[in-house]
């Protein structure tokens, strides 16, 4: 068709491809700008330039004039060709150049471009459909007829012969239009469900991204705190080292000064003793009786006698250096390290009280709102939407961010649950009990055993059943609620991980065991982190 001729007219004679940024020489011939510039570059310094087609000579390098009209035509041709390539289905009757098909005829098993579609038969047997490269899939493989019906029993498309003569005679059959409409409604419902799921997933994704950001921020803060703490420890160590060494040096100086004084005193005494010995030795060898008898010898017991030399035994050396001030100084480091170990960067314990407005009928709450106990006698509190039908109660305080912990103690008999839950948890029905739904996380004590419960599933927890004092820790941004036994040392029992979407309340449930023993749970005055 004319498309082939059009392409020939739009081809550059140098690269033989459709024009890209076409330009025109003075002789009237057109080329791609890049192609003709490369030709002109090769003609540089040859005494002139010439047109690649007609060889028209130019003394100076020709000025390349863009051909706007030809450029628009070439761009439209490029666009058309790209659309044809995208469709993948070409007109069966366009043999001179590929042209994109717009419809396919199932009877003719041919695809038609807009021009051939105009002259195509409009008879009912010529069924038109969207362009397709394999029209045999639209016909019955047995009777070679067009598929017009849908068998619901076999979930397959059939032709009229299959319906009237074949194995589908007794099946539920409907037209393709009806079946397609039903399938479209199903797909639309599925699409809505997927859209809703995608929206929920997007919300969860954003929540996880926010959680990731908060974890990174918290990690960065903790790293800085740890680094600052280590720097402070180093500073205190250096200061402590300086003070201890100064104390040792001062004691050394005092001890050495005392010892030096004693040495000098001993040397003087030694000299005096030597002189006295020599004098006595001389007297012992003299023969002059008068001289010997008239010599006056000093009494060793008199004051100032050289025999009174200062003497030191081994015990006196033990007091040269006193360890008491050194030990006192070293204990300052011990106190500092102990303060770090106890958690100087741990938040204060969260002060919680019980919310009587949520209290179940068989619960008695103490005056200080810290203890709840089971009672067989029902209370006379008015019914409100906030109150639980079961023996359950929440805290008045809600926790929507940050890290928190609180200590609880439960009865050694009976049964009870402690944990956290959303304020939207059901107040009636079988799933109101904390740990029995997807809005709560709990630890249960029953018949001397602990178990972790969430969404109706329980996991046995290894523990020392003699301990009934617990610590509950919540890290809202990290999505974790953990349970610990406050033994010595403190023992981890279980940790739940979740993406929290509502504020959380501390929750308590009370029951009784087979011996009809009452149960109780109380919120203790929290000790500082690191204590048990």
Written overview of the protein:
This protein is α+β, with helices and mostly antiparallel strands. Among the domains are: 2-87, Herpes Virus-1 (2-Layer Sandwich); 222-319; 356-523, SPRY domain (Jelly Rolls, Sandwich). The protein has eight helices and 24 strands. A seven-stranded antiparallel beta sheet has the order 12-13-24-15-20-21-22, with no helix packed on it. The protein has a six-stranded antiparallel beta sheet with strand order 14-23-16-17-18-19, with no helix packed on it. The protein has a three-stranded antiparallel beta sheet with strand order 2-1-5. Helix 6 runs antiparallel to helix 8. The longest helix has 110 residues, at 176-285. Mean pLDDT is 83; it is low at 528-532.
For the record, the CATH architecture of the domain at 356-523 stands as Sandwich
Major sheet description: 7 strands, antiparallel
CATH class of the domain at 356-523: Mainly Beta
Q: What is the strand content?
A: 15-25%
Could you name the CATH homologous superfamily of the domain at 356-523? SPRY domain
CATH topology of the domain at 356-523: Jelly Rolls
Helix share of residues?
A: 25-40%
Enumerate how many helices there are, as a single number. 8
The end-to-end span amounts to 93 Å
Unreliable spans: 528-532
Physical arrangement of strands within the biggest beta sheet: 12-13-24-15-20-21-22
Radius of gyration: 51 Å
- Please tell me the overall pLDDT: 83
Count all strands and give the number.
24
- Shape annotation: flat
Q: What is the SS-derived class?
A: alpha+beta
Would you summarize the structure shown here?
Helices cover 35% and strands 19% of the residues. The chain is built from 8 helices and 24 strands. The C terminus is likely disordered.
